[in-house]
Design a protein that fits this description.
Layout: H1 3-10, E1 13-18, E2 21-26, E3 32-35, E4 51-55, H2 78-90, E5 95-99, H3 109-119, E6 123-128, H4 135-141, E7 147-151, H5 156-163, H6 167-177, E8 182-189, H7 197-206, E9 211-216, H8 228-240, E10 246-249, E11 272-275, E12 280-282, E13 291-292, H9 298-307
Parallel strand pairs: 4-5, 4-11, 5-6, 6-7, 7-8, 8-9, 9-10
Antiparallel strand pairs: 1-2, 2-3, 11-12, 12-13
Helix pairs in contact: 2-3
C-alpha cells in the first residue's frame, strides 16, 4: 500500500469524544471503533449529537395514513442546511439523515448530497419512498450517499393499499437503489402489515438489502397506535427471526425487544436530534415542539433546547 493510499483512507476516519470514550467512524465502510478504555474529560465532549436527521421538505406525493410528518408547506433553504451541516460536522456529528416529507422532491436534493460528500466528513443517509429514484438521480447520488432507507410497509396488495403505488414498481426502484449504496427497509408494523413481515424480510434480503428497521405504528390524527396484540406478535417475530437482515427498532419503541446499545453512555441529545422542515430543532421527529434555529446557528439552538429538557434528555 502506498503512502498516498494510506493518507486517502485516513481522511475517511472521524474522531468523536464523549462519555463512552473515543469513537472512531469510517463513513466509507461504516466501521465504528469505540475505545472505551480512555476516559474523556467532560470539557472535551463533542458538542453536537452523534446523529442528526433533517426533514428537508414537508412535500410528499403520497398520503399514507400512518405518516406523522407535518402537512404544512415548509422547505428548508439550501444555504441554511449547508451552514448547519458545517457546524455539526465541526462539532462532532458523525452522520446526517435526510428525510421529509419525501426528500427526493427537494429541488436541490442531489446537489445537497454531493455537497455533504465533498465538503464535510459526515456520513449521509436518506429515507425515501423510492418512486422518484431514476437512472439520472442514481447517477448523481453514487459516491455521495452512504446508506439509503426505503419505506416498504407490507408487500403486494397490502403495500399498494397503503401507498397507492405499484409494488412491482417499488421492487424495480429498489434494484436501482442498491446500485447507489447499501440500503435497508423501513417497515411500519401494524395489524395490517405484520402478516407480511416474513415475506417482506425475504424480499429485502433477496434484493441485497442489509437492514430491516421496524417501526411500530405511532398514533396520529388518522390512525391509532399499534395495538397490544400486534405489538406482542412483533416481539415474537423478532425473537424467532433467523434471517440475514440486521434488525433495528426506533428507540421510543424498543421496550420489550432484545436490543444492543454499544454507546449507552450517550443518550438524548448527545446521541440524536432532529430538525424539521420549518427549521425547528427537536429531540426527535415525534416531538411536537422544539427550538427554532436562528441566525446564531444550530449549536446555539441545541444549547437552548438542552436547557429546556431534563438531564436524561441531554
Amino acid at each position: 500500500m502506498t503512502s498516498s493510499t494510506k493518507n486517502h483512507q485516513a481522511e475517511h476516519w472521524k474522531l468523536r469524544h464523549g462519555p463512552a470514550g473515543l469513537h472512531l467512524f469510517n463513513r466509507t465502510t461504516g466501521l465504528n471503533v469505540l475505545i472505551d478504555e480512555i476516559a474523556v474529560p467532560a470539557s472535551l465532549y463533542s458538542r453536537a449529537p452523534r446523529q442528526v436527521s433533517i426533514a428537508l421538505t414537508n412535500q410528499c406525493d403520497l398520503t399514507c395514513a400512518h405518516c406523522y410528518a407535518p402537512k404544512t408547506r415548509h422547505d428548508l433553504t439550501y444555504e441554511s442546511v449547508t451552514c448547519w451541516l458545517a457546524e455539526l460536522d465541526a462539532s462532532g456529528t458523525l452522520g446526517v439523515g435526510f428525510g421529509g416529507g419525501e426528500p427526493t422532491l427537494y429541488p436541490r436534493f442531489v446537489e445537497l448530497c454531493q455537497h455533504v460528500a465533498r465538503e464535510t466528513q459526515l456520513s449521509l443517509t436518506f429515507t425515501t419512498h423510492g418512486h422518484h429514484i431514476d437512472e439520472a438521480m442514481a447517477d448523481g447520488l453514487r459516491s455521495s450517499a452512504h446508506f439509503i432507507r426505503v419505506s416498504m410497509d407490507g408487500i403486494g396488495h397490502t403495500y399498494e393499499s397503503i401507498r397507492r403505488r405499484s409494488f412491482q414498481d417499488l421492487l424495480a426502484r429498489m434494484k436501482l437503489v442498491r446500485t447507489i449504496a447499501s440500503f435497508g427497509v423501513n417497515f411500519v408494523a401494524n395489524e395490517k402489515t405484520l402478516p407480511d413481515l416474513d415475506e417482506a424480510a425475504a424480499i429485502v434480503a433477496d434484493l441485497g438489502g442489509c437492514e430491516l428497521l421496524l417501526l411500530p405504528q405511532m398514533a396520529n390524527r388518522r390512525c391509532s397506535q399499534i395495538d397490544d396484540d400486534t405489538l406482542q406478535g412483533l416481539r415474537r417475530w423478532v425473537a424467532v427471526y433467523r434471517g440475514s437482515l440486521r434488525l433495528s427498532i426506533n428507540e421510543g419503541s424498543a421496550e420489550g425487544f432484545p436490543t444492543c446499545d454499544p454507546i449507552a453512555a450517550e443518550r438524548g441529545l448527545r446521541a440524536y436530534a432532529h430538525v424539521d422542515a420549518a427549521g425547528v430543532l427537536k429531540p426527535s421527529s415525534y416531538h411536537a415542539t422544539g427550538i427554532s434555529i436562528g441566525a446564531d446557528g444550530v449549536l446555539s439552538a441545541l444549547d437552548r433546547l438542552a436547557n429546556n429538557l431534563t438531564e436524561n434528555d441531554i
